[in-house]
Sequence to fold (532 residues):
Amino acid sequence: METPDLKNLIETFFSCDKGELIRIFEELLSAMEAEEVLPPTKMMSQNYETAQANPEINTLPGNLKDARDAVFPFFWGTDGWFSRLHLENVKGPANYASLVGTLACLLKNPNLCVDTYSQRSNELEVKAITALANLLFYHIDSPWGVFTAGGTISNMYGGKIGIEKVCPETLRKGLQGEQLAGIVSTAAHYSNSTLASWLGLGTENLHAIPTDENCALRLDLLATKLDELFNSGIKVAFIIATFGSTDAFGIDDVSGIREITEDKASKYGMPVPQIHVDAAVGWTLCFLAEYDIEKNSFGFDHSILPVIPRIQACCRSLRHADSITIDFHKMGWGHYPASAFVVNRRNDLVHLFRSKEEIPYFCEAEYRRDPALFTLECSRPAIGPYSVMASLNGIGLTGFQILVAHALEMAQYLKQRIESLNYCKVLNLNTTGPSVVWWVLPKGRDAKRIFRRLEAGKLAEKDYQRYFHEVRHLYDRRKHMMNPQKDACLSFTTSMGYMPNDIALPAWKAVIFNPKTDRSVLDQLIVSIEEL
Ligand SMILES: *Cc1c(COP(=O)(O)O)cnc(C)c1O
Fold:
């Protein structure tokens, strides 16, 4: 085929027109700048009604502006989470160092399956994983890992290694009727149910252990559960501990879990399960692992100084994990997808290895380093490593310490302000993260007393249901009345993780994720509660 069209296509879409690209990016950046001054709720509304009816595609070849026009309304209609009034959930603005890294990655579009598809980008993945592993485990023998498409997939790697460890050869032979179990806490993320079902274990074989009031898995109940399972001859493939639960930031005691599990396994002659830690949100606390609180060189607020040694103890216990999930696209302020699955001992990955015969077109793969030999994915983006290394080196260790400490300081401040109101109760007063979950009841009610009575089992169901209804009603009322120019956006959870007497606790929720969120935003939040 020798048409002028092919030549045009090559010139327009496969030759880099720097001027045109810069112009279009400039336009996108300007649109974003304009949006940043709007209140967070003023987004363009969705139009699902005809989205399916009109999936139009241009017929004739166009140019890069057609590409821009095809996505622009959706770009403009999408929130970049820049506003300091966004406190809803674990989402927020990605940092611009990450943008630089991510764009560089997209320009080359490497595929991290094997070295020959990615050259030095594979090397960058090794660097990024090692940097994160050093931060998480400190002194370790042989950390290794891969970037995945999200915390769910990273947790799935942990679960899969566990299954293969206690029931070897399942990769080839399947479970062969073996009933296996997995263990999490009631505050664990739902991705653990996903992996239990997808890995063939079945959600009914995933046991959720109740937590204490700080949303940490109760070790006494873990011991009981292990006795029960091992006694019936059921092998436990994995225990997935939570390091920072999504709503209330509960942190499980990983060294306690390790001790009890090894003890019980040896007592019953059972294989030791994989102890995987889901630190998707909680991992950034590790930036404070070595902060010297005596010197307090950043002058952290006295409200958070006592919290830091507790954080440091939690971080030290991570070395007892076999593997860890971290989401850099959450509190690393990186771009999606930048989740990492990190193992403490590289040899554990052997459990996932496929043979080279199974991957004929990667016959050049090397067991020493090529991820394609064990990853779930075949093609794998390099956005994670680029986002991580650009962010870590742009912002720096100290920069991350300041960002994390700021989030903790603000959360602590908000907890104190809310707790001082009689009709409010902070439900996660003693957890050590950036999230706050609480009740707002009608003025005149003694929220603390109501909470104590509920915990003590002294409230009839119709009473606590009425209180829960009030908590929800006041949340909806604030949402209805709020001034989008100054009132922060919050979210609501129907179960914050701690379940006294098996009762799920609904709560208002705020997460200090945006570094721009300051005391004035939180003061105004208190005003909006007082005015209800
Ligand atoms: C967000 C989250 C996940 C899931 O991670 P994705 O990256 O959204 O797939 C898992 N565990 C916890 C604790 C989380 O907060």
Notes: The CA atoms of residues 72 and 209 lie 47 Å apart.
